[in-house]
Fold this sequence. Notes:
This protein is an alpha/beta fold. The protein has one domain (4-184): 3-Layer(aba) Sandwich (Dihydrofolate Reductase, subunit A). 26% of the residues lie in helices and 30% in strands. It is built from 5 helices and 10 strands. The chain has helices at residues 30-40, 50-56, 70-80, 107-116, 126-134, and strands spanning 4-11, 15-17, 43-49, 83-87, 99-102, 120-124, 140-146, 154-155, 165-172, 178-184. The strands form 2 sheets. An 8-stranded mixed beta sheet has the order 5-4-3-6-1-7-10-9. Strands 2-8 form a two-stranded antiparallel sheet. Helix 1 (30-40) packs parallel to helix 3. The longest helix has 11 residues, at 30-40. The radius of gyration is 16 Å and the shape is globular.
Amino acid sequence: MGKLIYAANVSLDGFLEDESGSFDWSVPDQDVHAFWNEHERHIGTSLYGRRMYETMRVWERDDWLLSEPAVVREYARIWRDTDKIVYSSSLTGVSTVRTRIERQFEPEAVRRLKESSGSDLSIGGAGIAAEAFRHGLVDECVLLLCPVVVGGGKPALPRGVRLDLELLDHRRFDNGVIYVRHGVRNPA
């Protein structure tokens, strides 16, 4: 059985994006990128909302990767080798391999996917992750706390959901980013 893991870069005040939709403050250095590579290497299926998928699909293209460091090119290979499910009622097609569209988020279908998976699953995108939290589907949270306060924007964690967490791991990176991994004790 796979665990469903919510993973994100987060500002110190708890946002994925600032009020203008920017997340340039969370661009990883090589050490943080290597961390994400190792994390993603263990993911068999990624669940995305439409906006997160549209952000992530850049990893499918090679044109911009040619001049990037090896750690960045490696992430592209890892991402391409992962199955992807995009939850969208408006997307008419996908432009990446190993990707399918689901028109709506169905908690029981995700529960069955977890039960039948031989590897962990990730969930990305604030809206779709909030649904997973509300339905008690998230098993772990992996957050990289970036040393920045953005003052507002898109919250990383859902409002109105109580979760008791257990610290499973943590680490400090040289650039000031703090990694925390928590297990969810009482799914909603």
